[in-house]
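A reminder from the course coordinator: this example appears on the midterm review sheet, so study it carefully.

Given structure:
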């Protein structure tokens, strides 16, 4: 049996901007993007939402993040954080600082007892990200 758990993010009209930002910041690829005006649900959204995203998919490594714009979204998503796991300290630094642009740093990227780099940031779109770069395991002699 093949099984995967993916996630979906809701935006207030900035999904395409966010996904393009994530693709650039996290070395991802937008694999699908359908606008409200081109979807079978076009009549369910206000006319000015025709150019907003009905559904999009973004591939980052082996993970797929789905998303879309919801005309009635009033609050940014809360109560979760997307965790980016890497074994590359330079990549962790680069991704954290990219996501922090116009965002809010909750915990600066730093070394911890379990990680070579660990930090938390809420990006400019209201999405919480945790960057975790675990320390290399030392072999016991």
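Designed residues:
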């Amino acid at each position: 049996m093949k099984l995967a758990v993916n996630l979906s993010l809701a935006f207030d009209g900035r999904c395409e901007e966010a996904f393009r930002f994530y693709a650039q910041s996290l070395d991802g690829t937008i694999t699908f993007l359908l606008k409200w005006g081109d979807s079978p649900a076009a009549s369910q959204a206000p006319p000015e939402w025709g150019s907003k995203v009905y559904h999009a998919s973004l591939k980052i490594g082996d993970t797929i993040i789905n998303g879309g714009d919801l005309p009635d979204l009033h609050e940014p998503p809360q109560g979760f954080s997307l965790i980016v796991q890497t074994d590359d300290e330079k990549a962790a630094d680069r991704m954290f600082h990219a996501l922090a642009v116009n965002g809010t740093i909750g915990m600066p990227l730093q070394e911890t007892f379990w990680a070579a780099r660990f930090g938390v940031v809420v990006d400019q779109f209201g999405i919480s990200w945790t960057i975790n770069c675990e320390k290399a395991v030392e072999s016991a002699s």
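The helical segments are 15-25, 89-100. The beta strands are 7-11, 29-35, 53-60, 63-69, 82-86, 104-110, 115-122, 128-134.
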